[in-house]
Amino acid sequence: MTARSRPIVTCQTGPHRDLARRVARALEHPLRKPLAEHTCEAFARARAWLERRGGASLILDAGCGVGLSTRRLAERYPAAAVIGVDRSAERLSRDHGRLPTNALMVRADLVDFWRLALAAGWQPARHYLLYPNPYPKPAHLKMRWQGHPVLPMILALGGRLELRSNWRLYVEEFALAVTQVTGESASAESFVPDVACLTPFEQKYHASGQALWRLVVDLPHAPGLVPRGGVPALTSER
């Protein structure tokens, strides 16, 4: 059966005109919303699991959905510790086979998980943002990661950051935001996935004949990017 996946429909024809202002605001005003208790508990479990991995390099699969990407990244990088994070218990419960021993999936709010990871000094070797919700309406810019107050924390974690989307504008906006925050050059590029696509969305979009886009940029670990007061204090209970 031929896959039929609808392309992104939007009235936005170029990078959002308010993007630079929102990024500047994120750099000037720290995110101080209270941390969700369930995410603090999930992070504590993830932190303990990572410590038991004996110094293995960390790969973060942010917004892992049903976890297929977490499994495939763990198989691709057997010496690494791969942590997949998603907010949906229902998605995480879907059966995609046995989880490799070097992989962990946790249910958590990504915004809070990133904040806790930065506070704990985590430095992922690789950090994946695979097919985030595009929120294609111009009014929803603040819901895209490049328009969200957590953006400086995402970038401050460092490592090889890879974003993939079937909407070129999303990747172009993210690239502009990366350069504005870090000074690092970044750009959108088209790509063709491997035979084993990393996510069901990637498989569906590719099979439908949609163009796929990605951004790959190497970033330093740079907690100083985050405004003072933006990184939460970790306590022994967490």
What series of H and E elements makes up the topology?
HHEHEHEHEHEHEHE
Give the spatial strand order of the biggest sheet: 3-2-1-4-5-7-6
**Which structural class is indicated by helix and strand composition?**
alpha/beta
Broad shape: globular
Radius of gyration: 17 Å
Structure notes:
With 238 residues, the chain is an alpha/beta fold. It contains 8 helices and 7 strands; from the N terminus they run ααβαβαβαβαβαβαβ. It has a 7-stranded mixed beta sheet, with helices on both faces. It is globular and about 45 Å long. The protein starts with 18 loop residues before the first helix and ends in a 19-residue tail after the last strand.
Topology diagram in text:
Elements: H1 19-28, H2 37-52, E1 58-62, H3 68-76, E2 81-86, H4 89-92, E3 103-107, H5 110-119, E4 126-130, H6 151-156, E5 159-165, H7 168-182, E6 189-191, H8 200-207, E7 212-219
Parallel strand pairs: 1-2, 1-4, 2-3, 4-5
Antiparallel strand pairs: 5-7, 6-7
